[in-house]
Amino acid sequence: MPRPAATEDVFRAVADPTRRAALEILGRRRDVPVTALAEELGVGMPMLSRHLAVLRAAGLVTERRDGRQRRYRIEPEPLRELYDWAAIFRDFWPEKIENLRSYLERTSNDT
Predict the structure, then answer these.
(1) Each residue of 39-75: pLDDT tens digit?
(2) Tell me, what's the pLDDT at 108?
(3) Would you give the distance in Å from CA 100 to the centre of its chain?
(4) Per-domain residue ranges for the chain?
(5) Which DSSP symbol is given to 43?
(6) Residue 42, H or E segment
(7) With b meaning 16 or more CB within 10 Å and e meaning fewer, what string describes 15-50?
């Protein structure tokens, strides 16, 4: 079975904790003014602008003008690629954790 595709831009975009936090905020609220987003994230406008440029390039957010305000909205579809790719590993962890649990039980019984 071939590996699901996920663009490098999406991975790069979500690799940064500030960008992940921005996506979480945008996921909870529909349409957020850039100033409110900066305030909630606790970052300055120049830094936020750079983060939003990465998110826009990855197709994860859209920007629209509302008078003098810029408002942002999440576009979740590119995250589907990331989710599909990460799903490959869903079955990996329970088995590894169970193996670790068994190992720890065996070694603790030996002492």
Answers:
(1) 999 999 999 999 999 999 999 999 999 999 999 999 9
(2) 83
(3) 28
(4) 8-110
(5) -
(6) none
(7) eeeebebbbebbeeeeebebeebbeebebeeeebee
Interacting residues of 31 by C-beta distance below 8 A, sequence separation 6+: 71, 72, 73
How far apart (Å, rounded) are the C-alpha atoms in residues 104 and 56?
46
Q: Hey, what amino acid is at 106?
A: R
Smallest CA-to-CA distance from 74 within 111, 19, 36 is with: 19
pLDDT of residue 110: 66
CATH code of the domain made up of 8-110:
1.10.10.10
| pLDDT higher than threshold 80 for residue 109 | no
Q: d(Cα 39, Cα 86) in Å, to the nearest integer?
A: 31
- CA-based end-to-end distance of the chain: 45
